[in-house]
Amino acid sequence: MSDDLVLCDVAENVAIVTINRPKALNALSDAMLAAMTETLTKLAGDTQVKAVIIRGAGKVFCAGHDLKEMQAGRAADDKGAGYFADLFARCGTLMQLIPSMPQPVIAQVHGIATAAGCQLVASCDMAVAASDARFGVNGVNIGLFCSTPMVALTRNLSRKQAFEMLTTGEFIAAERAREVGLINRVAAPEDLDAVTLDLAKTVAAKLGAAVRIGKRAFYAQLALPLDQAYAYTGAVMAENMLLRDTDEGISAFIEKRKPDWA
Prior knowledge:
Strand content: 5-15%
Oligomer: single chain
Helix content: 40-55%
C-alpha cells in the first residue's frame, strides 16, 4: 500500500475507502481525521458513487484515537483543554458526515474496532464483520469514558447493552455484535471482502435518486414524534413518486420487464 493515510478506489459505482495507517492500528490521528473528512466529503459530491465501503489496512479495522498524540496535546494550552475540545469536535464532524452522505456507507470490520473505531462502525449505515472481529468501547479501562463513541453506540444498541459495554470496557464478538444490532452480517475472514462488496453492489444497483431520498428521510424521521414522522415521510414518498425513473420502475414491474432508468 502507498503512504497515503486514506486510499480510495472506485469501481462499478462502489467506492472502497481504506484507513491506511496499519503500523498504528489505523488510529484516528489529527491527520487521519482530516484525510477521512476530505475523502468522504469528495465522495458525497460524486454522483457516480452509489455506495461506500470503509475498511482498515493491516491487522485491524481501527483502534480509536491516537493516544500518544493525545498525550502530546496536553502541552498545547491549559493542560490541553483547547486541543481536546477541538479534537473531539473534529471527530464528531467526521462521524456526523457519514449519515449525512447521500450514499449508503458500509463498515467492513476485521480484527478489532475499539473506542472511536467502534464509534466509526456505529456511525456507518451498515456493517459487515469477520467472524473473529471484536468490538469495544474500552476507554474506561484507562480512565477515559467513551462519551463521544457513546452517541453513535446508543443509536444502534439497547441502553442496557450499550451501558454495559461502556462501563465494563469488555469486548463483544462479531456474532454478539450482530445480535445486538451493531453490525448487519458476519462473514468468514476469507470471505469478508466478497460479502461486503456484494452488499455494496446490491445497494448500488438500486435507483440512486430513491436511495438518496430514502437515506435522508431515514435519519430525519428518527428524530420526530410518530405523527410528524408519518407526515414527513408521506411528503417524501410523494416526492419520490414524481420522479421519472420511479414512474418507469413501477411500470416495468407491472409489465414484467427490466426498468430503463436514465
